[in-house]
Write a structure and sequence with these properties.
By secondary structure, the protein is of the alpha/beta class. The chain folds into two domains: 137 residues, Alpha-Beta Complex (Aspartate Aminotransferase, domain 1), CATH 3.90.1150; 214 residues, Aspartate Aminotransferase, domain 2, CATH 3.40.640.10. The protein has 14 helices and twelve strands. Strands 2-8-7-6-5-3-4 form a seven-stranded mixed beta sheet, sandwiched between helices. Strands 9-12-11 form a three-stranded antiparallel beta sheet, with helices on one face. Helix 6 links the parallel strand 3 and strand 4. Helix 1 crosses helix 13, helix 4 runs parallel beside helix 11 and helix 12 runs parallel beside helix 14. It is globular and about 55 Å long. The N terminus is likely disordered. The chain binds pyridoxal-5'-phosphate (PLP). The site of pyridoxal-5'-phosphate has 13 residues, from helix 5.
Length: 359
Protein backbone atom coordinates (compact mmCIF):
# COMPACT_ATOMS: atom_id res chain seq x y z
CA UNK A 1 0.00 0.00 0.00
CA UNK A 2 2.79 2.42 0.96
CA UNK A 3 4.59 1.42 -2.24
CA UNK A 4 1.56 2.24 -4.27
CA UNK A 5 1.04 5.63 -2.69
CA UNK A 6 4.64 6.56 -3.32
CA UNK A 7 4.64 5.54 -6.95
CA UNK A 8 1.42 7.49 -7.37
CA UNK A 9 3.19 10.50 -5.94
CA UNK A 10 6.04 10.07 -8.35
CA UNK A 11 3.75 10.37 -11.34
CA UNK A 12 2.11 13.28 -9.57
CA UNK A 13 5.48 14.97 -9.31
CA UNK A 14 5.98 14.49 -13.01
CA UNK A 15 2.54 15.84 -13.74
CA UNK A 16 3.08 18.79 -11.40
CA UNK A 17 6.31 19.52 -13.12
CA UNK A 18 4.58 19.59 -16.50
CA UNK A 19 1.56 21.56 -15.44
CA UNK A 20 3.47 24.11 -13.39
CA UNK A 21 2.29 22.72 -10.07
CA UNK A 22 -1.46 23.09 -10.47
CA UNK A 23 -2.20 19.40 -9.96
CA UNK A 24 -0.37 19.26 -6.65
CA UNK A 25 -1.73 22.60 -5.53
CA UNK A 26 -5.30 21.58 -6.24
CA UNK A 27 -4.83 18.44 -4.19
CA UNK A 28 -3.20 20.45 -1.43
CA UNK A 29 -6.19 22.80 -1.55
CA UNK A 30 -4.20 25.83 -2.63
CA UNK A 31 -3.50 27.91 -5.68
CA UNK A 32 0.11 28.40 -6.77
CA UNK A 33 1.30 31.92 -6.27
CA UNK A 34 -1.33 32.52 -3.63
CA UNK A 35 0.94 32.81 -0.60
CA UNK A 36 4.05 30.82 0.25
CA UNK A 37 2.34 28.09 2.24
CA UNK A 38 0.54 26.58 -0.74
CA UNK A 39 3.07 27.60 -3.36
CA UNK A 40 5.17 24.74 -4.64
CA UNK A 41 8.93 24.83 -4.34
CA UNK A 42 9.81 23.99 -7.95
CA UNK A 43 13.25 22.47 -7.62
CA UNK A 44 13.04 19.76 -10.27
CA UNK A 45 14.36 21.32 -13.46
CA UNK A 46 17.25 23.63 -12.59
CA UNK A 47 15.42 26.77 -13.64
CA UNK A 48 16.35 30.19 -12.40
CA UNK A 49 13.56 31.39 -10.06
CA UNK A 50 14.45 35.03 -10.87
CA UNK A 51 12.40 36.45 -13.76
CA UNK A 52 14.38 37.62 -16.82
CA UNK A 53 16.26 40.91 -16.86
CA UNK A 54 13.95 43.90 -17.51
CA UNK A 55 16.19 44.76 -20.47
CA UNK A 56 15.60 41.28 -21.96
CA UNK A 57 11.85 41.73 -21.49
CA UNK A 58 11.90 45.18 -23.08
CA UNK A 59 13.93 44.08 -26.11
CA UNK A 60 11.76 40.98 -26.57
CA UNK A 61 8.66 43.16 -26.40
CA UNK A 62 9.99 45.54 -29.02
CA UNK A 63 10.83 42.63 -31.33
CA UNK A 64 7.33 41.26 -30.83
CA UNK A 65 5.87 44.53 -32.11
CA UNK A 66 7.75 43.98 -35.37
CA UNK A 67 6.94 40.29 -35.59
CA UNK A 68 5.24 40.70 -38.97
CA UNK A 69 8.78 40.65 -40.45
CA UNK A 70 11.02 37.61 -40.77
CA UNK A 71 14.05 37.65 -38.49
CA UNK A 72 17.58 37.98 -39.74
CA UNK A 73 18.43 34.58 -41.15
CA UNK A 74 22.01 34.59 -39.93
CA UNK A 75 21.21 35.86 -36.43
CA UNK A 76 23.88 38.50 -36.95
CA UNK A 77 22.76 40.78 -34.14
CA UNK A 78 22.82 38.00 -31.59
CA UNK A 79 26.12 36.69 -32.90
CA UNK A 80 27.71 40.12 -32.70
CA UNK A 81 26.29 40.61 -29.19
CA UNK A 82 27.94 37.30 -28.27
CA UNK A 83 31.25 38.49 -29.75
CA UNK A 84 30.93 41.74 -27.84
CA UNK A 85 30.37 39.78 -24.65
CA UNK A 86 32.87 36.91 -25.04
CA UNK A 87 35.42 38.13 -27.58
CA UNK A 88 36.17 37.16 -31.18
CA UNK A 89 35.03 33.52 -31.24
CA UNK A 90 32.90 31.72 -33.84
CA UNK A 91 29.31 31.01 -32.76
CA UNK A 92 26.30 29.05 -33.89
CA UNK A 93 22.83 29.40 -32.37
CA UNK A 94 19.93 27.03 -31.88
CA UNK A 95 16.54 26.46 -30.29
CA UNK A 96 18.01 25.89 -26.84
CA UNK A 97 21.32 24.10 -26.48
CA UNK A 98 19.21 21.04 -27.22
CA UNK A 99 18.66 22.46 -30.71
CA UNK A 100 22.41 22.98 -31.14
CA UNK A 101 23.14 19.41 -29.98
CA UNK A 102 20.55 18.00 -32.39
CA UNK A 103 21.97 19.92 -35.36
CA UNK A 104 25.58 19.09 -34.51
CA UNK A 105 24.81 15.38 -34.29
CA UNK A 106 22.76 15.44 -37.47
CA UNK A 107 25.55 17.05 -39.48
CA UNK A 108 28.53 15.20 -38.01
CA UNK A 109 27.33 11.67 -37.28
CA UNK A 110 26.45 9.03 -39.88
CA UNK A 111 24.25 6.09 -38.89
CA UNK A 112 26.39 3.36 -37.29
CA UNK A 113 29.13 5.77 -36.20
CA UNK A 114 30.24 5.84 -32.61
CA UNK A 115 29.18 8.54 -30.12
CA UNK A 116 30.81 8.39 -26.66
CA UNK A 117 29.15 9.89 -23.58
CA UNK A 118 30.57 10.42 -20.10
CA UNK A 119 27.81 9.10 -17.79
CA UNK A 120 25.78 9.56 -15.65
CA UNK A 121 24.74 12.74 -17.43
CA UNK A 122 22.09 14.74 -19.29
CA UNK A 123 20.04 12.31 -21.38
CA UNK A 124 19.54 14.36 -24.55
CA UNK A 125 22.97 13.53 -26.02
CA UNK A 126 22.07 9.89 -26.15
CA UNK A 127 18.51 10.51 -27.42
CA UNK A 128 19.76 12.72 -30.25
CA UNK A 129 22.57 10.28 -31.14
CA UNK A 130 20.22 7.28 -31.18
CA UNK A 131 17.74 9.19 -33.35
CA UNK A 132 20.57 9.59 -35.86
CA UNK A 133 21.27 5.83 -35.77
CA UNK A 134 24.57 6.24 -33.94
CA UNK A 135 26.10 3.55 -31.79
CA UNK A 136 26.26 5.04 -28.29
CA UNK A 137 29.05 4.14 -25.84
CA UNK A 138 28.57 5.13 -22.20
CA UNK A 139 31.84 5.94 -20.44
CA UNK A 140 31.34 5.58 -16.68
CA UNK A 141 32.74 8.17 -14.28
CA UNK A 142 34.76 7.32 -11.17
CA UNK A 143 32.84 6.41 -7.98
CA UNK A 144 33.19 10.05 -6.78
CA UNK A 145 31.75 11.17 -10.18
CA UNK A 146 35.00 12.73 -11.36
CA UNK A 147 35.93 11.87 -14.94
CA UNK A 148 38.34 8.95 -15.34
CA UNK A 149 40.56 10.79 -17.83
CA UNK A 150 42.64 7.84 -19.16
CA UNK A 151 39.48 5.72 -19.27
CA UNK A 152 37.65 8.44 -21.18
CA UNK A 153 40.47 8.77 -23.70
CA UNK A 154 40.62 5.00 -24.28
CA UNK A 155 36.88 4.52 -24.61
CA UNK A 156 36.30 7.61 -26.76
CA UNK A 157 38.76 6.12 -29.24
CA UNK A 158 37.10 5.96 -32.66
CA UNK A 159 34.10 8.06 -31.63
CA UNK A 160 33.05 10.71 -34.13
CA UNK A 161 31.96 12.93 -31.25
CA UNK A 162 32.17 12.62 -27.47
CA UNK A 163 30.07 14.43 -24.87
CA UNK A 164 31.34 15.75 -21.57
CA UNK A 165 29.25 17.95 -19.30
CA UNK A 166 30.91 20.33 -16.80
CA UNK A 167 29.49 21.20 -14.32
CA UNK A 168 27.79 17.87 -14.91
CA UNK A 169 24.06 17.31 -14.80
CA UNK A 170 22.90 15.61 -12.49
CA UNK A 171 26.00 15.22 -10.29
CA UNK A 172 27.19 18.88 -10.29
CA UNK A 173 30.77 17.67 -10.72
CA UNK A 174 33.25 20.09 -12.25
CA UNK A 175 35.98 18.79 -14.59
CA UNK A 176 38.69 21.47 -14.81
CA UNK A 177 40.01 22.96 -18.07
CA UNK A 178 43.35 21.12 -17.61
CA UNK A 179 41.63 17.74 -17.64
CA UNK A 180 39.49 18.74 -20.60
CA UNK A 181 42.65 19.74 -22.45
CA UNK A 182 44.24 16.33 -21.78
CA UNK A 183 41.23 14.72 -23.42
CA UNK A 184 41.26 17.14 -26.36
CA UNK A 185 44.87 16.47 -27.23
CA UNK A 186 44.46 12.69 -27.08
CA UNK A 187 41.17 11.96 -28.84
CA UNK A 188 40.81 11.82 -32.62
CA UNK A 189 37.15 12.91 -32.74
CA UNK A 190 35.27 16.01 -31.68
CA UNK A 191 34.55 16.88 -28.06
CA UNK A 192 31.23 18.56 -27.24
CA UNK A 193 31.75 20.26 -23.89
CA UNK A 194 28.40 21.12 -22.31
CA UNK A 195 28.75 24.31 -20.27
CA UNK A 196 25.04 24.84 -19.52
CA UNK A 197 25.89 25.62 -15.87
CA UNK A 198 29.31 27.21 -16.27
CA UNK A 199 28.16 30.59 -14.88
CA UNK A 200 27.66 28.94 -11.47
CA UNK A 201 31.26 27.70 -11.14
CA UNK A 202 34.45 29.67 -11.31
CA UNK A 203 35.96 28.00 -14.32
CA UNK A 204 36.50 29.33 -17.81
CA UNK A 205 36.87 26.92 -20.71
CA UNK A 206 36.76 29.45 -23.56
CA UNK A 207 40.54 29.74 -23.92
CA UNK A 208 40.63 26.08 -25.03
CA UNK A 209 38.95 27.11 -28.30
CA UNK A 210 42.11 28.81 -29.55
CA UNK A 211 44.25 25.68 -29.67
CA UNK A 212 41.69 22.98 -30.51
CA UNK A 213 39.94 22.52 -33.83
CA UNK A 214 37.96 19.60 -32.39
CA UNK A 215 36.17 21.44 -29.59
CA UNK A 216 32.58 22.67 -29.40
CA UNK A 217 31.41 24.41 -26.21
CA UNK A 218 27.65 24.50 -25.71
CA UNK A 219 25.99 27.32 -23.77
CA UNK A 220 22.41 28.25 -22.97
CA UNK A 221 20.27 31.19 -21.87
CA UNK A 222 17.98 28.78 -20.00
CA UNK A 223 19.77 28.62 -16.66
CA UNK A 224 21.78 31.61 -15.38
CA UNK A 225 20.09 33.99 -17.85
CA UNK A 226 16.51 33.11 -16.81
CA UNK A 227 15.20 32.57 -20.36
CA UNK A 228 14.32 28.84 -20.34
CA UNK A 229 10.92 29.53 -21.88
CA UNK A 230 12.41 31.32 -24.89
CA UNK A 231 14.67 28.44 -25.99
CA UNK A 232 17.97 30.13 -26.80
CA UNK A 233 21.17 28.14 -27.00
CA UNK A 234 24.48 28.68 -28.73
CA UNK A 235 27.92 27.19 -29.04
CA UNK A 236 31.51 28.23 -29.48
CA UNK A 237 32.61 26.31 -32.55
CA UNK A 238 35.75 25.95 -34.67
CA UNK A 239 35.56 28.11 -37.80
CA UNK A 240 35.29 25.12 -40.14
CA UNK A 241 31.97 24.11 -38.58
CA UNK A 242 30.12 27.40 -39.17
CA UNK A 243 29.24 27.00 -42.89
CA UNK A 244 28.33 23.32 -42.45
CA UNK A 245 26.07 24.17 -39.53
CA UNK A 246 24.42 27.09 -41.37
CA UNK A 247 23.66 24.87 -44.36
CA UNK A 248 22.10 22.15 -42.22
CA UNK A 249 20.17 24.19 -39.65
CA UNK A 250 16.64 25.37 -40.38
CA UNK A 251 16.73 28.75 -42.21
CA UNK A 252 15.82 30.71 -39.08
CA UNK A 253 17.45 29.01 -36.12
CA UNK A 254 15.75 31.36 -33.65
CA UNK A 255 12.70 33.55 -33.61
CA UNK A 256 13.12 37.32 -33.46
CA UNK A 257 11.66 37.69 -29.95
CA UNK A 258 13.96 35.08 -28.41
CA UNK A 259 17.02 36.49 -30.15
CA UNK A 260 16.25 40.07 -29.07
CA UNK A 261 15.58 39.06 -25.47
CA UNK A 262 18.85 37.12 -25.37
CA UNK A 263 20.72 40.23 -26.51
CA UNK A 264 19.01 42.20 -23.75
CA UNK A 265 19.99 39.56 -21.20
CA UNK A 266 23.63 39.69 -22.32
CA UNK A 267 23.63 43.46 -21.86
CA UNK A 268 22.51 43.19 -18.24
CA UNK A 269 25.33 41.21 -16.60
CA UNK A 270 24.39 42.61 -13.17
CA UNK A 271 21.15 40.65 -13.28
CA UNK A 272 22.95 37.35 -13.83
CA UNK A 273 25.58 38.22 -11.27
CA UNK A 274 22.93 38.62 -8.60
CA UNK A 275 21.28 35.28 -9.41
CA UNK A 276 24.64 33.51 -9.42
CA UNK A 277 25.53 35.04 -6.05
CA UNK A 278 22.27 33.81 -4.53
CA UNK A 279 22.83 30.30 -5.92
CA UNK A 280 26.34 30.09 -4.48
CA UNK A 281 25.18 31.27 -1.05
CA UNK A 282 22.17 28.94 -0.87
CA UNK A 283 24.15 26.01 -2.31
CA UNK A 284 26.57 26.47 0.58
CA UNK A 285 23.64 26.42 2.99
CA UNK A 286 22.49 23.04 1.60
CA UNK A 287 25.99 21.61 2.10
CA UNK A 288 26.03 22.83 5.68
CA UNK A 289 22.53 21.84 6.71
CA UNK A 290 21.42 18.79 4.71
CA UNK A 291 21.80 15.67 6.83
CA UNK A 292 22.29 13.43 3.76
CA UNK A 293 25.54 13.34 1.74
CA UNK A 294 25.62 16.02 -0.97
CA UNK A 295 27.99 15.68 -3.94
CA UNK A 296 30.22 18.79 -4.42
CA UNK A 297 28.55 20.94 -7.07
CA UNK A 298 29.50 23.79 -9.38
CA UNK A 299 25.96 24.14 -10.72
CA UNK A 300 22.62 25.64 -9.64
CA UNK A 301 21.58 22.28 -8.23
CA UNK A 302 22.95 19.59 -5.95
CA UNK A 303 22.68 15.83 -6.03
CA UNK A 304 21.83 14.20 -2.72
CA UNK A 305 22.44 10.56 -1.77
CA UNK A 306 19.28 9.47 0.07
CA UNK A 307 20.35 5.86 0.75
CA UNK A 308 18.92 3.59 2.01
CA UNK A 309 15.78 5.17 0.56
CA UNK A 310 15.34 5.43 -3.18
CA UNK A 311 15.24 8.72 -5.04
CA UNK A 312 11.74 7.91 -6.13
CA UNK A 313 10.51 7.41 -2.57
CA UNK A 314 12.12 10.61 -1.35
CA UNK A 315 10.86 12.65 -4.31
CA UNK A 316 7.40 11.36 -3.42
CA UNK A 317 7.70 12.35 0.24
CA UNK A 318 9.10 15.77 -0.64
CA UNK A 319 6.26 16.35 -3.10
CA UNK A 320 3.98 15.65 -0.18
CA UNK A 321 5.65 18.57 1.59
CA UNK A 322 5.24 20.82 -1.46
CA UNK A 323 8.78 20.44 -2.77
CA UNK A 324 9.30 19.16 -6.31
CA UNK A 325 12.70 17.56 -6.88
CA UNK A 326 14.02 15.22 -9.55
CA UNK A 327 14.50 11.58 -8.72
CA UNK A 328 17.65 10.43 -10.54
CA UNK A 329 16.84 6.76 -11.14
CA UNK A 330 16.42 7.34 -14.88
CA UNK A 331 20.02 8.48 -15.35
CA UNK A 332 22.08 5.57 -16.68
CA UNK A 333 24.91 4.26 -14.46
CA UNK A 334 23.81 6.14 -11.35
CA UNK A 335 21.66 3.75 -9.34
CA UNK A 336 18.42 4.55 -7.60
CA UNK A 337 19.46 6.35 -4.41
CA UNK A 338 19.83 9.93 -5.61
CA UNK A 339 17.73 13.04 -6.00
CA UNK A 340 18.68 16.23 -7.80
CA UNK A 341 17.55 19.47 -6.20
CA UNK A 342 17.74 22.88 -7.86
CA UNK A 343 18.83 25.86 -5.82
CA UNK A 344 15.74 28.05 -5.85
CA UNK A 345 14.70 31.02 -3.77
CA UNK A 346 15.50 31.36 -0.09
CA UNK A 347 12.07 30.05 1.07
CA UNK A 348 12.32 27.09 -1.32
CA UNK A 349 15.74 26.17 0.00
CA UNK A 350 14.47 26.38 3.58
CA UNK A 351 11.40 24.31 2.84
CA UNK A 352 13.53 21.68 1.09
CA UNK A 353 15.99 21.47 4.00
CA UNK A 354 13.20 21.25 6.57
CA UNK A 355 11.44 18.54 4.57
CA UNK A 356 14.46 16.35 3.84
CA UNK A 357 15.89 16.67 7.34
CA UNK A 358 12.53 15.57 8.74
CA UNK A 359 12.52 12.28 6.77
C1 LIG B 1 19.37 22.50 -19.37
C2 LIG B 1 20.49 21.84 -20.05
C3 LIG B 1 20.79 22.03 -21.42
C4 LIG B 1 20.04 22.79 -22.41
O1 LIG B 1 19.06 23.50 -22.20
P1 LIG B 1 18.28 24.31 -23.30
O2 LIG B 1 17.14 24.80 -22.52
O3 LIG B 1 17.92 23.37 -24.42
O4 LIG B 1 19.22 25.39 -23.78
C5 LIG B 1 21.89 21.42 -21.95
N1 LIG B 1 22.67 20.65 -21.22
C6 LIG B 1 22.43 20.43 -19.93
C7 LIG B 1 23.35 19.58 -19.17
C8 LIG B 1 21.32 20.99 -19.32
O5 LIG B 1 21.08 20.71 -18.03
Amino acid sequence: MAEKRISGYDSLVRKCYRSGGYVFARRAGGVPGNGESCRLARLASNENPTPPSPLAVEMGYRALQEANRYPDERMEELTSALSEFHGPYHFVTGVGMDGVIETVIRILVEPGEKVAISVPTFSYYSLAALAQGASVINIPRNPDFSVDIPGFITQANGAKISFLCTPNNPTGTVTGPDDVEKILTEISGILFLDNAYVEFCDRDYRALMAAHENLIIGRTFSKAYSLAGLRVGYAFVPEWLVPIYMRAATPFTLNAVSAAAAIGALRDPGHVHEAVGRVKRLREEVFEKCRFPVTPSGANFVMVDVSPMTGKEVAGCLADAGVLVRSCESFPCLGEHYIRVSIGEEWENTRFLDAINAL
